[in-house]
Amino acid sequence: MHGLFRTDEKDGGCQMDGSKTIALGGAIRAEWPLDWSKLTVNHGAYGATPKCVLAAQEMWRDRMEAQPSIFMRSILPDVLRTNAGALGSFLNADAQDIVFVDNATTGCNAVLRSLDFKPGDEIVLHGQIYGAVGKTARYVAGRTGASIVEVPLAFPGGDAAAFIEALGARLNDRTRLVIVDHITSPSALVLPVEAAVRLCRDAGVPILIDGAHGPGQIEVDLKAIDADWYVGNCHKWLAAPKGCAFLWSRRDRQVGLHPTTISHGFQQGYLSEFDWTGTRDATAFLAIETALAFHEKLGGMALRRRNADLAHQAGRLLADHFGTAYGNEAHPVAMAMVRLPFSGATSAERALALRDRLLDEFRCDAPLIAHPDGIWVRVSAHAYNEIGDYERLAGILDRLIRTDRAAD
Ligand SMILES: Cc1ncc(COP(=O)(O)O)c(C=O)c1O
C-alpha cells in the first residue's frame, strides 16, 4: 500500500480508489519519496517517480529474480508489448510502432546512427537543440562528411511562423534529415511540429521529432503529428521510473532502423531488434501501465492543464518579483522561463556554478540557464508543486543574487 494508491501484487497495476478526490500540491507529497526538506521545482530535468510506480517496478523485479529464465523468455516479451500498447493508447499510436529505449538520447542516437550519410549531405537542426542530441548529430556528420545546418531560434521572442519560414529556407536537395524538438530544453518553447512535418513531407525530407519533454506535459497525438520518427521520455512528465523512454517510427521508416546495440534480433524486424538488446533490467518499461494509471488518477488532461496554469502563475510571480522577462509566457507548458537580475558576465559555466550553489547552500533544485541576454531560471510545475513553492523560490533567489553581487 502506498498512500492513496495500492500496487496490485498480481499484475503490477496500481489499483486506484475511484471514490477519492485527489488534492494536489502539498497534500499529495507523501506519494513521492522526494526529500521535502529541499525545494524541488525542477521536475523537467529528470522527473520524479511516485512510490506506487516504484513499487510496481519492484514487483516486476521480484518476479524477474524469482526465475530469470522464465521471466526473460516467457513473461518479458509479452508484458513489454502490453506496456507498449498502453503507451500507444495514451499517445494515439499503435503498439507495433512503439519500441522502448532507455532515454531520449538513446532514441535519437538510434535514428541518427541508422541513417547513411555521405559527404555533402546536410542535417538540419535548430539553435536550441538539446546538447547531447546536437553532439550526436555532429558526431555522425563528422564521421560521414555530412554537414550541420542550423536554423536560428530566437529566445525570447520568435514565433511559429518565423521558425517554419526559417526552416523552409534551409531545406534543399542535400538535406537528408531534419531534427525538431517538441519542447525545447533551454527555453521551454513548444515548436510547431505538425507544420514542420508538413513542410518536410512536401520537401521529401525525413524528420525526427525530439519529444523528450512532450508526453505527460502537453498533448501528444503521434498519428496526428505523423513524423518519420518521434522520441519521447516517460521518466520526465509521466513520472515513470528512470530509464523509460520510447521511439515511435512510421511503418515505412522501421526498415533499416537499428538500436544502438545490435543483438540477436538483427535484421529480424523492428520489434525483434529493439525489444531485446541483450540482458538488461527492463522493469522501468513494465511500470508504464502504472505510471499512466497514476497520471490519469491525478487528472490526466486536467492535470496537464493544471500544471501549465501553475507554471504560468509561477512565471508571472517571478517576473513581477524581479521586474524581468517571462520568456515563454505564450507557450502553454508546465515550465516557465524567467530572466534573473544577476550582474556581471553571462556564461554557461557561471550559470552552472550558481545552480550548484542553489542546490548545496540553499537546498533548492531549480535550473539556471545562460542565454545571450543573461541568466534565466526554468521552473517546472508538477502535481506536488503549489504556488507557495515559487514564492519560496523568489526569496531564495533574492539571497543568491544578493550574495553573488556582494562577492563580485
Ligand atoms: C529536448 C531534449 N532532448 C533530449 C533530452 C535527453 O533526455 P534523456 O536524458 O532522458 O536522454 C532532454 C533532456 O532534458 C531534452 O530536453
From TrEMBL:
Pfam families: Aminotran_5 (PF00266). Keywords: Aminotransferase, Pyridoxal phosphate, Transferase. GO terms for molecular function: transaminase activity. Residues 88-356 form the Aminotransferase class V domain. This is Aminotransferase class V.
